[in-house]
Design brief:
Distance between the termini: 21 Å
Largest sheet: 7 strands, mixed
Helix content: 40-55%
Bound molecules: D-serine
Number of helices: 19
Strand content: 5-15%
CATH architecture of the largest domain: 3-Layer(aba) Sandwich
CATH class of the largest domain: Alpha Beta
Mean pLDDT: 97
Structural class: alpha/beta
Number of strands: 16
């Protein structure tokens, strides 16, 4: 496709939108400008390709398609079947998975599908068998009451939120923490690393139904072979949430013990982080869980989004190209260069570095909370997000950490030399920012002081750093 075609496609789309609600067209244009001008270091974001973006803006959005390929609750789903089957085929081939379910709308939805597939397989099915009935509607009231109690009283062991786990791995304010009797494994306070012996000990004591591996803020590789052995030793189903690092698995940077797909019974992911697809989720699983996973809608999901499944098929086809492996390796090279640049300048990093796409700065070393650091960086054109660090004294709102990641800047084409310059900009902002005070003179966890002229200067330097790597160079909306 010619570069001109991309420009024409997006300009025409905005013209059509502008004729109905110009403020929406303006906001879309403004978002492109903002993304072009800022250093996007949010570890969970990326830039999807024009083909992926365009696959979402069409009449597939108008179609209901509850059920799965070839078994729908609505007529007229033949074209939805085509794109859903294609997305699933690309996912299976890309990850070497036995089964792929591409309907989840997000990572949280994918995790809910996985939890309920395991509960259905390990709790509901045996109860139906014991009662000698085919489905839950055939149970007596007494058996149904007993089954509901049993479904709501199962155990999950996952990584704690402040050690880098995700809130859906049993955090009490999330439904996962309410559905399951949950315990967490943390990291070694001295090294910040997962201590597999401690995980095994916790599994032996707690005997979870589900052992969850995976993270959203842990900067190291995880040995999924060892976690599977731990799960097997206590009869747990092993689930991995690879939302953050799916691109590194797809690009074969994480292989062998570090590739979750051959080791886990069930793997969940988002499609929009390092995988660089549309916003959405996906579940991969072993054959024995496939039927239960395919019941995700209407079990816990609303109607599938066929336009997003079409975009997933496009993005997964892109990830199967040879150049995606090079992209995935450059993500890690860049994260390591960023970590080294920060360490050399005196920053304190959780675990002292990174093996993956993300770096977690402990900003207490700069005398700041995560919230103060996040805002000061934003004033300076650097977009990050605050994050807890292990044993964080500031909780999940103010935090003591800043999480930064390289998937987006790597997509733009920035390399290791520019990561060192990025480290310099971040370190300068954080050393020049001081914690502020409340009106009554007490220390504030939110207020901070940063010279606005310095913030402007850093923002200009960030723009200069990005200038040789224009975002969507073929798209000119002017
Ligand atoms: N919001 C995602 C992240 O930033 O890691 C996870 O839900």
């Amino acid at each position: 496709m010619s570069r001109n075609a991309e420009s024409t496609a997006f300009r025409s789309a905005l013209e059509v939108i502008r004729a109905v609600e110009p403020r929406v067209a303006d906001a879309i244009g403004a978002e492109l400008t903002d993304q072009r001008e800022s250093l996007k270091l949010i570890a969970s974001e990326n830039y999807a390709s024009p083909a992926t973006l365009l696959a979402m803006g069409n009449w597939f959005s108008d179609k209901y398609a509850e059920g799965t390929v070839g078994r729908r609750f609505y007529a007229g789903c033949q074209n939805v079947d085509t794109v859903e089957a294609l997305a699933a085929e690309h996912a299976r081939e890309l990850f070497g998975a036995a089964h792929a379910y591409v309907q989840p709308h997000s990572g949280i939805d994918a995790n809910l599908v996985a939890f309920w597939a395991v509960l259905a397989d390990r709790v509901e099915s045996p109860a139906l068998k014991k009662a000698q009935v085919r489905q839950v509607n055939d149970l007596t009231e007494a058996d149904w009451f007993a089954l509901r109690r049993e479904l709501g009283n199962q155990r999950m062991l996952g990584m704690s939120l402040d050690a880098g786990g995700h809130l859906t791995h049993g955090f009490r304010p999330n439904i996962s923490g309410k559905m399951f009797d949950q315990r967490s494994y943390g990291t070694d306070p001295a090294t910040g690393l997962i201590d597999y012996d401690r995980v095994a000990e916790a599994a032996r004591e707690f005997k979870p139904l589900i052992l969850v591996g995976g993270y959203s803020a842990y900067p190291r590789k995880v040995n999924f072979r060892i976690l599977r052995e731990i799960a097997d030793s206590v009869g747990a189903t092993f689930m991995v949430d690879m939302a953050h690092f799916a691109g590194l698995v797809a690009g074969k940077v994480f292989t062998g013990d570090f590739d979750p797909v051959p080791h886990a019974h069930i793997v969940t992911t988002t499609t929009h982080k390092s995988l660089r697809g549309p916003r959405g989720g996906m579940v991969l699983c072993q054959p024995e869980l496939a039927d239960q996973v395919d019941r995700g809608c209407p079990m816990v999901l609303g109607g599938p989004l066929p336009h997003v499944m079409a975009a997933k098929a496009v993005a997964l086809a892109e990830a199967r190209r040879p150049d995606f492996a090079d992209y995935a390796q450059r993500i890690v090279d860049n994260a390591q260069a960023l970590a080294e640049g920060l360490l050399r300048r005196g920053a304190k990093l959780v675990t002292g570095g990174t093996d993956n796409h993300l770096v977690l700065i402990d900003v207490s070393g700069y005398g700041l909370t995560g919230r103060q650091a996040e805002q000061a960086l934003l004033d300076s054109g650097i977009v990050t997000n605050r994050n807890s660090v292990p044993q964080d004294p500031n909780g999940a709102w103010y935090t003591s950490g800043i999480r930064i990641g390289t998937p987006a800047l790597t997509t733009r084409g920035l390399g290791t030399a520019e990561m060192d310059q990025t480290a310099e900009l971040i370190h300068t902002v954080l050393t020049q920012t001081t914690a502020g005070a409340n009106a009554d003179g007490t220390a504030s966890k939110a207020k901070y002081n940063l010279d606005p002229d310095l913030a402007d200067k850093i923002a200009r330097q960030a723009t200069d750093l990005l200038a040789p790597h224009p975002l969507y160079p073929a798209i000119d909306l002017a």
